Amino acid sequence: MTQPSRDRRGSVYVAVLGAAMIVATIALTVSAMGRLALRSASDQRDRRQAQVAARSGVEFMLGVINQYSDWRSRMTSGVESGDLTSNHVRFSWSVTDVDGDLADDPLDHAVIRAIGKSGEARSALTVTVEPFNHTVPLSSAVTCLQSALHADDALTIAPGAVIQRSGDVTSNSEAAYLASPAKSMPSDHVFDYYVSRGTTIPIGSLTGANPSRFRGVVLSRHLNPFGETNPWGIYVIDCEGADVELSLCRVYGTLVLLNAGPNTAISDVAIIQPEADNYPSLMVQGDLSIDLQSDTTGAELHELSRINYNPPGAPYDGVEDSDQVDNARPATLDGIVYVTGTATISDDAVIRGCLVAGNVTVNADKVLTLEYRPYARDYPPPGFTIGAGVRPLPGSWREVGL
Asked: What is the pTM of this model?
């Protein structure tokens, strides 16, 4: 008669023991989850503090560089500093010249890199900087932008050629137009910003071959008939040594031609304007022949029921529409026109802004009209600055891996 009672007591003991084990397991789980949550919160806090420390490191170096005009000789490119500590976080920094030598060229861009540290967390931040004069900001432009036309070397005006101008015409070597002192030119890295921010248009997208024809199109930050649009209106064509011919087209932004062939040309009427008045509209790595005349329409760009040159997304003088019957518009190149080789004025042309080139030739009996506009001089765009200090290039802040 006693056996069932003992069985019941054993069953109760097992049940109580099982419940205790469940409670203990839950307690241990809750405790572990709490520890994990605390650790996760601590890790997140450390990550945030490391990110703040990295930003502080970059800002610290910007301050140091802009305090010491001889910073390029004080530092060694690419060498990381020791840790600096502030409010329980640490950061280290380095400054790397684009060509590895900080002291060889005061116009070179550089990359500031800071590593923020908090606990075990690490965060790295970089920014690309270019020369800038913080003491006198309006003196931060390369001085070639003070002229309506500037040639770094030869400036040749053939017999019968005429330059009608508002603004100076200067050369760093031609006696008749000698700039004294010599005017500073952009560095070899002037294209870097525009290439890094630009959208590529493959040379194969153009019609024809040598010359490849950029013809009958409208290009802007909202319009790109060759592919994706670019939010800054910057487009880059690597010509791969081939000639490119621009004609009957309108660019409302910045067009960059790399490795241009020797006969690259604007061979018919065109309107090329930067979206921002102080920016370059056309940058050519190589030679460029400029002819803004048409045998049929003269120096005007006509729609003639074929092409709408001010469609939605590419306004002209603030006006855009959807028809193809607008009045004629004068063919012009506005903003900065920058050519590393020789810019040849092969027919009458109007440039409203600055023409800067290695060499400039105005062919016989041609008329070059220059309307100088000081926007770039007063507010120099990326790549066209000088100064002992630096400023960050827009859009160049990057979180990077370690």
From this structure: 0.84
